[in-house]
């Protein structure tokens, strides 16, 4: 199974590489040292079985909140890479798992996402995660293109 994933072209994308960097940056104790990319990013994949095991109502733990932040940090890095302007992510959550994720570029809010049920944050596959990130990145870059003066402030 690992050989199949290793051959997957998604593993060579900028987004997956950046997600791996973000997750390794969160690893202050060196737990991920020697781990494969698939194993590091595995908590982002919520299969039907995994999702069914998570209660409908619950409070997110610190690890889940860190994964949400890593996701938006990775998108911010890709925005910076594309437009050469500093992108600043902000994730604000209540203890119940509701809140917002913002990515600002200059004075422009490039991404504004309402977050709900963060304790169930995840994607059906790494491909779906990348698709969601690409969609948000596309919207952000379009906004930056529409309002370059605001983004440059």
Strand portion: 5-15%
String of helices and strands = HHHHHEEEHH
Helical amount among residues, as a percent range?
Answer: 40-55%
In the CATH hierarchy, the third-tier topology is known as Putative cytoplasmic protein
- Summarize model confidence as the mean pLDDT: 92
Strand arrangement in the largest pleated sheet: 1-2-3
Instruction: Give the tally of structural domains.
Output: 1
How many beta-strand elements?
3
Shape, please? globular
Count of DSSP H/I helices: 7
Write the CATH architecture name: Orthogonal Bundle
Q: What is the structural class?
A: alpha+beta
Relevant CATH superfamily: Protein of unknown function DUF269
Low-confidence stretches: 1-6
**Largest sheet data:** 3 strands, antiparallel
Distance between the termini: 48 Å
Rg = 16 Å
Q: What is the top-level CATH class?
A: Mainly Alpha
Q: What is the gist of this entry?
A:
This protein has 153 residues and is of the alpha+beta class. The chain is 50% helix and 14% strand. The protein has one domain (2-151): Putative cytoplasmic protein, CATH 1.10.3100.20.
Can you tell me about this structure?
The structure is a single chain. The protein is an alpha+beta fold and 153 residues long. The chain has a single domain (2-151), classed as Protein of unknown function DUF269 (Putative cytoplasmic protein). It has helices at 2-7, 14-26, 37-41, 48-53, 62-83, 126-146, 148-151, and strands spanning 87-93, 99-105, 108-115. The chain has a three-stranded antiparallel sheet with strand order 1-2-3. The model is unreliable at 1-6 (pLDDT under 50).
